[in-house]
Amino acid sequence: MNSIVNDREAQLRYRQRRQLDLANCRHGLSQNDFSTLITVGHNLKGNGVSFGYPELSHLGQRLESAAKTANHQMASECLEQLEAWLARNRQL
Question: What is the pTM of this model?
């Protein structure tokens, strides 16, 4: 059974960690190293919903798929979407 984390401090820390994930993914993508993107995408897919962010779960699924097929363009688009999501949700 999935339970959504309602602790605002935990949600804030979660969003802050996604900033680090974004930086790590951008670095990995610049090196054509898709392993980090696979891991981050997989983790987003699994835990986004638990923190009340289902859109991150969907984004994680797409990022993981793009990375597994080494689709640089799609992975880059996913990272742009993650960056936009983080900007929109920075102060929640």
Answer: 0.89
